[in-house]
Amino acid sequence: MKNKLHACIIDDKDNGESISQLLKKEFPEFEIALCTKSIPCASDYLRKNSPDLLFVDIQLNDETAFEILSRLKETPSPVIFITDSENSAIRAVKRGFSDYLLKPVTNLDFVLMVNKAIEDFRKNKITQSSQIQNKINLPTLQGFKRVNIDEIIRCEADSNYTFIYLLDKTKVMVSKTLCDFEKNLSRYNFFRIHHKHLINLEHLKEYIKGKGGQVVMADNSVLDVSVRRKNEFLHKMV
């Protein structure tokens, strides 16, 4: 059975019941986790939960939705603001919120906006997942150092060891061969320019012509490019 998505509705008008009914009708995959006009109730819920979709009336009694959200911890939930005032909608846009619905809410506008919010939410989850996966463990004598792959400038072979040079100017010695790192990092835009050097092409500053040529990296290191790898390297940089 497909997992249900959860929505939270904070609306002065009929406690959000009209938005709730519209959501149930057009998007049956959603379950209403909370439907209220109570600011304390909503605040308490959002401190403990991150719904898949959040509807908020911009003006709730004497307190705006912006003030409510600013008091809460940062939430990954996509937010759709609801308002009966174009001036309030403009304020939302100025604060960086592009997703809002003007009352009375039409079915078409509602469906378009919710579809957009769902798509944005899924893209964000994919991005977050990708960021989590784009890390690597570097074994050390003390244990291991976990780093973001994009923080690695270059890897340098030293017999059966590899030195990893990072953006923070630290160097980590790892008891793995450069071949091991080449296999794992090639898909992240790393290229082996020499039997001793594997570089992150994102941190390449300059190429200097020569028989094989040389590269200048973000840490200002100057590395030789082997003759046999020169053409493949230049082709990759086109």
Strand order of the largest sheet: 2-1-3-6-7
Question: Hey, roughly how much beta strand do the residues contain?
Answer: 25-35%
- Overall form: elongated
Distance between the termini: 48 Å
The CATH fourth-level homologous superfamily of the largest domain: Response regulator
Number of strands: 17
- What is the helix content? 25-40%
This entry's quaternary arrangement is single chain
Can you put this structure into words, describing what you see?
This protein has a five-stranded parallel β-sheet, sandwiched between helices. 34% of the residues lie in helices and 34% in strands. The chain is an alpha/beta fold and 238 residues long. The chain is built from seven helices and 17 strands. It has two domains: 5-132, Rossmann fold, CATH 3.40.50.2300; 136-237, OB fold (Dihydrolipoamide Acetyltransferase, E2P). The chain has helices at residues 17-26, 39-48, 65-71, 86-94, 107-133, 178-185, 227-237; strands at 5-10, 30-36, 53-57, 59-60, 63-64, 79-83, 100-102, 135-140, 143-148, 152-158, 161-166, 171-174, 190-194, 197-200, 204-208, 214-217, 222-224. The mean pLDDT is 86.
